[in-house]
Specification:
mainly alpha; about 350 residues; single chain; 15 helices; about 10% strand
C-alpha cells in the first residue's frame, strides 16, 4: 500500500464508500445537474426573469448521487424538503424585511416544517434562504418554479442513473431475517436498538431499518467467528470410556449400559483407538468387541468444533473421539455437547 493511500485524509468518511462509488457519483451529478439545468432553462425560456436552477440543487445532488441510501436523499425529502423550505422563505420575505432575523427565522421555520412533514433535507436550509432572498418579487410561484421543477427533474435523473448503475433507488432497507434457533449469544431486539439510540441521544444519517439489517448481519458474522474459535479441546469430555478390542462383546455391552452412553471407544493393547462400538452392534454379539466394532469418527484437539457438525448430521456419528498424536483417545465430543453450546447461545 502506498503512502498516498495510507493517508487518512483521502479515505472515504462514509461506511461502505469506495473510490469507484465516488467517481460514479460525480458522473451521476454531472448528468443530473446538467439535465436539470437544461430542462429548467427551456421551461423558463418564455419567462427570462425566472431563475432556471437554484443553488440548493447542487447540495441535493451530493445526497442523491453520493449517499442514495440516506433517509434524507429519498424522493419525498428531496422534493418536499426543497419546496416546503422555499415556501417558508418566501412567506418570511412577505412578512419581514430582509435582515439577520428574517434569515434565521427562514431556516428555523424550514427545519420545523420539514420535520413535521417528514421530509427533512439539509439543502432545504439553503432553499429557505433562496426563497427569502427572492422575496416578494418572485411571488408564491417560486417554490414550484423553479425549485419544485428542479427537484423533480433531479430526482428523476437520480432514479434513472441508479437503475443504470445497479443501485436501488428509492432506497429499500435489506430484509431482516427472522430470529432463528441459531441466533448468536447476546442477541438484541428492535426495542434494544431503539433504547440504545435514545440513550446515546444522537441523530445518525441512517434509517432504523438499515441499522437493524446491518446489526443483524454483524450478529451472523460474530456467531460464525465465535463458533470457529471453539476448538474440540474446549468441548470434549474426558476421560474417555473405552474397552479393548479383545474384550468379550458382553463386557462392552455391560459397560455401555452401566455408563448410559451411546458409543464406546475401542482400543488396542497400547491404548490406541482402533474403533467404536454401540448398543446396536452389541445386542446379539457373542464374540469379541473387535469383531463388531466400526471405524471411529475422530478429530484432533485443536480442530474447530464447528467442523464436527457434518459428522453428526450427515455421517450419523453420535460421538467424535478426540485423539492425540499417538492416536490415543483424549476426549469425546457428543451431539449433546453441541446442543449444550447452542442452548447457551440462545439464552
Amino acid at each position: 500500500m502506498s503512502a498516498f493511500t495510507r493517508l487518512k485524509i483521502f479515505r472515504p468518511i462514509l461506511a461502505g464508500a469506495t473510490l469507484r462509488d465516488r467517481l460514479l457519483a460525480s458522473l451521476g451529478a454531472l448528468v443530473g445537474i446538467g439535465l436539470t439545468a437544461f430542462i429548467s432553462a427551456v421551461a423558463a425560456h418564455q419567462n427570462p426573469e425566472i431563475l432556471w436552477i437554484v443553488p440548493p440543487m447542487g447540495a441535493s445532488a451530493v445526497l442523491l448521487f453520493a449517499v442514495p441510501a440516506s433517509p434524507m436523499a429519498q424522493p419525498w425529502p428531496v422534493i418536499g424538503g426543497n419546496v416546503v423550505s422555499a415556501l417558508v422563505g418566501v412567506l418570511i420575505a412577505h412578512l419581514l424585511p430582509l435582515s439577520a432575523l428574517s434569515a434565521g427565522l427562514a431556516v428555523a421555520g424550514a427545519i420545523a416544517a420539514m420535520s413535521l412533514l417528514r421530509c427533512l433535507h439539509p439543502p432545504g436550509g439553503a432553499a429557505a434562504l433562496v426563497g427569502l432572498f427572492a422575496g416578494a418579487s418572485s411571488g408564491y410561484l417560486f417554490p414550484l418554479l423553479p425549485v419544485g421543477l428542479n427537484a423533480v427533474i433531479l430526482v428523476a435523473s437520480a432514479y434513472g442513473y441508479h437503475r443504470f448503475s445497479g443501485h436501488a433507488f428509492p432506497h429499500v432497507a435489506p430484509a431482516v431475517a427472522p430470529k432463528k434457533a441459531e441466533a448468536p449469544p447476546f442477541t438484541f431486539s428492535r426495542g434494544d436498538m431503539e433504547a440504545t439510540l435514545a440513550e446515546l441521544g444522537e441523530t445518525y444519517d441512517i434509517g432504523t431499518d438499515d441499522l437493524e439489517a446491518i446489526l443483524r448481519s454483524v450478529e451472523r458474522h460474530a456467531l460464525a467467528r465465535s463458533y470457529q474459535q471453539i476448538a474440540c479441546r474446549d468441548l470434549m469430555s474426558s476421560p474417555v470410556l473405552s474397552v479393548e478390542a479383545s474384550a468379550p462383546a458382553a463386557t462392552a455391552r455391560a459397560l455401555l449400559v452401566d455408563a448410559d452412553v451411546r458409543r464406546l471407544a475401542v482400543v488396542d493393547e497400547q491404548g490406541r483407538l482402533v474403533g467404536a462400538v454401540g448398543l446396536p452392534e452389541l445386542v446379539a454379539a457373542t464374540g469379541t468387541t473387535g469383531a463388531v466394532m466400526s471405524a471411529p469418527a475422530t478429530a484432533r484437539p485443536g480442530t474447530p468444533a464447528i467442523s464436527l457438525l457434518p459428522r453428526y448430521a450427515q455421517d450419523r456419528a453420535h460421538a467424535v473421539f478426540i485423539v492425540d498424536a499417538q492416536n490415543r483417545p483424549a476426549g469425546v465430543v457428543t451431539e449433546a455437547d453441541w446442543l449444550a453450546v447452542l442452548t447457551r447461545g440462545l439464552k
